[in-house]
Amino acid sequence: MNSDSFRSITLASSLSELSRARAEILSFIEGHVSEMDASHIILSVDEALSNIIRHGYGEKSDGLVDLDMRLLNSSFEFTLSDTAPLYNPLENAAAQNEPVDGANGGFGIGVYLRFMDVRYEINENGGNRLILKWEKKNEVSTESD
Amino acid sequence: MAEAILKITENKNGNVLILVLEGEIDAHTAPALKEAAEKKITEGNTKIVFNFAKCTYISSAGIGVLNSILNAVKAKGGVIAVSEANKMITDTFKVMYFTKKVQLYIETAAAVKDLQ
Hints:
Largest interface: A-B, 35 and 31 residues
Structural class of chain A: alpha+beta
Number of helices of chain A: 3
Strand content of chain A: 25-35%
Order of helices and strands of chain B: EEHEHEHEH
Low-confidence stretches of chain A: none
Mean pLDDT of chain B: 96
Helix content of chain B: 25-40%
Oligomer: heterodimer
Helix content of chain A: 25-40%
Radius of gyration of chain A: 14 Å
Strand content of chain B: 25-35%
Shape of chain A: globular
Low-confidence stretches of chain B: none
Distance between the termini of chain A: 44 Å
Structural class of chain B: alpha/beta
């Protein structure tokens, strides 16, 4: 059941769902974090979700992704569960140093690893579960130049 | 919440094309940006300012497209610039190293002047 400290939504495996996911995340976290932290959190989950839809499901629209959001004291945990073929992104973070159009999503993985503590699990039913945890201590400088 | 929408309008100042981006640039809308920009490059535009004043979000898919556009215009001796990006989008550009490759301007007029 959804509450101020927990919210769960189910998304179709369509890139058109990304905007709705971002709006739900913002609604869940706003008031708890700064505008910049919110931007980093939304970007991270968006990158992970985009990869699941684009590369996990291959944009097949009949798949689903469950997004569970939890507020835990000073941290937020986002759990993405899907039934796409098993894939551990932590073993496949490509060494891309810039986003490349049409690439395999490796850069997106690097983005969320920059802001989140991430772990990957295989669901009991065989699907994937990606857990992204953001903590206030994870203040990351984004100055790259 | 409806799906992300990206509206692209254009105007020209001398030999500089200004593409005004309104909405969100994510994995869903980035292909529309690519298609629109590639069409303009094919038509001979090689100096392009992307005005982000009305853009509220960009992800790596969008910056991947901008990198692709940058490479396309550079191959023709051209250049691109970004103007009027908000604080969060500017931060995303930094996260994705785009600020190492493209000049960001506070004002579109300054970007146009430099590119001419």
